[in-house]
Specification:
With 388 residues, the protein is of the alpha+beta class. Helix content is 23%, strand content 31%. Strands 16-15-14-17-18-20-19 form a seven-stranded mixed beta sheet, sandwiched between helices. A hairpin with a 3-residue loop joins strand 5 and strand 6. The longest helix is centred in the first third of the chain and has 18 residues. The termini are far apart.
């Protein structure tokens, strides 16, 4: 659609779980806006999406600014980290409220504790994927991100989420491309990853060519070393991830442990390597790394977690860390049927986690809820729920 700018004032009632602010237009239609905080009035906004019952957009001018509003660090903040507009304590409070709202929507009476953080709200990401932008004025390639909600690219001068080594390497690669008079249209993106020692791996994805294999990196988590591919799944914020793992370890109460959606094995192998441990993963690349990381510890299984149901037994602790879609209904049904002693559920999407936990609450009690700010300055939240 063609973007339209409106000057109708709209008051923002609150933030919603997706991260936008919600308000009501004069005609009663709801609007979801970025770049707003509760109780502010957006006096000008650009509409980016029209639906029959609501609009989405980006606020351009604000009146009655929230006292917690601060200037964003990056010109690309709406693309990468729209919560840069609020002070960090307020972000933590808002995320706790949003998590509480998700629980209430699923009829779960769960009190939410303070969101856990290591207080590092910038320069925490160990992975970043950049777009490449062709600057017509300079006839040079520039680093870019996609504008939120569109395919339009926004060139960037700085970015404060990723580790500084990553942005520095990205700039060096762009400078080399420009020296060689390359064209941005030849490249899909630039992916870079850094380990905790600042070693970098990754590179360019070229259009029309298979994605290259990059050199593996290694990192230590709770003292154990793990190998992983830069373009595979591995946690973005390791210090906060370790905080969650330390909490999980306290709740391993059985000798038998089943780690579903195991990835390269960082949960099970960090918290239960001294147990009778089974780790299930379907992605072949991740499974290959899992086997290396296990190094004859535990029992790696190449299978879909929702089809590895025969591994679930009553005398187990089951660890769940599913993708954003949550757990398959077949898995939930099997857990309710077999009733393993403990379920430890870590999720990057509290909405689908709440849906699953509501079903599990038929036979399980919620022992503890601990939210973690794995992704500061973004609307995303990782949440841990212990069920027994």
């Amino acid at each position: 659609m063609r973007y339209v700018t409106s000057n109708e004032p709209v008051k923002i009632d609150r933030l919603v779980p997706g991260g936008q602010g919600i308000g009501t237009l004069e005609n009663g239609q709801k609007i979801f806006l970025w770049n707003v905080l509760p109780n502010e009035i957006a006096t000008e906004f650009t509409i980016t999406k029209k639906k029959s019952k609501y609009l989405e957009g980006i606020a351009n001018k604000i009146e009655n600014e929230n006292s917690h509003r601060i200037p964003p660090r990056d010109n690309c903040f709406l693309s990468t980290s729209p919560f840069q507009i609020m002070d960090y304590d307020y972000e933590l409070d808002q995320k706790a409220e949003l998590l509480q709202e998700v629980f209430q929507q699923n009829n779960l009476a769960i009190p939410v504790t303070k969101v856990q953080t290591d207080l590092h709200d910038f320069y925490y990401r160990n992975k970043m994927e950049y777009s490449l932008y062709w600057d017509l004025d300079s006839e040079k390639i520039r680093l870019a991100f996609h504008q939120r909600g569109s395919h339009r690219k926004i060139p960037i001068e700085n970015s404060s989420l990723e580790r500084p080594e990553i942005f520095k390497k990205a700039q060096e690669i762009i400078a080399s491309l420009n020296t060689n008079n390359e064209q941005a249209r030849n490249f899909q993106s630039l992916l870079l990853r850094a380990n905790q020692n600042g070693e970098i791996s990754g590179g360019l994805y070229e259009n029309g060519k298979p994605h290259p294999s990059f050199k593996n990196l290694t990192d230590k988590i709770l003292g154990y070393e793990y190998s992983y591919s830069p373009n595979g799944f591995f946690q973005i914020n390791l210090p906060v991830y370790e905080m969650a793992l330390q909490e999980i370890k306290q709740h391993i109460t059985t000798n038998k442990v089943l780690d579903l959606y195991a990835g390269v094995g960082t949960i099970g192998l960090s918290v239960a390597r001294d147990k009778d441990l089974t780790l299930v993963e379907i992605d072949k690349s991740a499974y290959s790394e899992l086997e290396k990381n296990a190094d004859n510890i535990g029992h790696p299984v190449l299978a879909k977690s929702e089809e590895a149901l025969d591994f679930i037994t009553p005398d187990q602790t089951v660890i769940l860390d599913p993708p954003r879609a949550g757990c398959d209904h077949k898995l939930i049904k099997k857990l309710l049927e077999v009733r393993p002693e403990k379920i430890i559920y870590l999720s990057c999407n509290p909405a689908t986690q709440a849906r699953d936990v509501k079903l599990l609450s038929e036979k399980y009690q919620i022992e503890k809820v601990v939210p973690y700010n794995f992704f500061p300055r973004t609307p995303h939240l990782e949440n841990l729920i212990i069920l027994s």
